[in-house]
Predict the structure of Protein-arginine rhamnosyltransferase.
Amino acid sequence: MTPIPPFPPTHKPADRPALAPGLRWDVFCRVIDNHGDVGVCWRLSADLAARGHAVRLWIDDASALAWMAPQGAAGVQVLPWRDPLADEVPLDVVVEAFGCDPPAAFVERMAACHAPPLWINLEYLSAEAYVERSHGLRSPQMAGPGRGLDKWFFYPGFTETTGGLLRGAGVALAPSPRALDRPLHLTLFSYDPPGLSAFRDALSTLPGGACVDVTPGWSTRVVQEQLGLALQLAGPTRDGRLTWRALPLVSQPGFDEQLRRSDLNLVRGEDSLVRAIWAGKPLVWQLYPQDDGAHADKLEAFLALYLSGAPTGLAAALSTVWRSWNGLSDDPEAAAAWADLLPPKPLWTVWQHWAHQQAMALSRPSDLVSRLLDFVARHRVASQTV
Ligand SMILES: Cc1cn([C@H]2C[C@H](O)[C@@H](COP(=O)(O)OP(=O)(O)O[C@H]3O[C@@H](C)[C@H](O)[C@@H](O)[C@H]3O)O2)c(=O)[nH]c1=O
């Protein structure tokens, strides 16, 4: 076992390295699967830095940042996750993404600080009711390396009493919907949606045809497996009235722009759901499937929120399509619902307007980073007055 190097029992704030104005943050990220962990941690870090804060992003696998954030961000230092991490002085705020357990030696140093950093666990986004109940709760650490510290739960969410949604400074809100006088343009970023071939059938009947941009990895594989289309970056694949195009991996700003340019976005996971909302275009969401079926409740909660107040015909057709896209119903109506939702059917325009309206409504309250800064400010004031 590597011995933990000795360090003084207390560290006054003055012991911490002086950095840029604003607060100094340690963000910890473990890449478990796919791109969501790094995607969220990068957006958070870059947004904090854009507001004058200094961020050390500790990450166990930074490889995806080469394509996701090739531009980097002034104020964000990307550092390899090290365990033990006893030689670093914790900064003002420590964000642990998705309960990823920062190295024990680092947490021991946090606990040994004269004025310990504020320790925040950033959780997964959901519209379920437990989010409002759990947001902002304190978890006193009774044992382990952080004994004596408090860890605070910060839950992203869609309502005022949650942690809000990541937005970023450069988000251009959706333009108003336009009438379609060309092939429908789609982006496919998915896991393995059951019924992809039924969806292709619905697209194939569109009078103007459609062009589907397929993201690399899972989606390209699934198009090959379910539809027998081997997509190549070299050029588009014709398929009757449809055109399929393989996309390369692009930066987050490029990905966001891709969603804004599309007429219909089929997205997956939490981060691209939020970006598709901001794009203000019709969207279909595929959730990461959980073995215990927990994604079903998560989908229903989001449907209830997103479609609250929607015209009845739209709510019914969209719910049918979304459940079937997630393998949560084998509703024979799904094919008919798809057909009803696509142009030139009247519901298409209703859907466009609804997506635009929801982008505006959900962007009106403050965003996640603003709420996080407010949360931190309130706790720092409270801890100084104790
Ligand atoms: C395809 C593509 C994606 N991206 C980014 C956008 C997002 O930040 C990120 C994708 O993240 P998500 O949309 O969350 O989907 P994901 O499927 O990659 O991640 C998911 O993995 C599951 C295991 C987790 O449980 C989910 O919570 C979720 O995080 O990749 C690009 O920047 N460029 C690209 O070309």
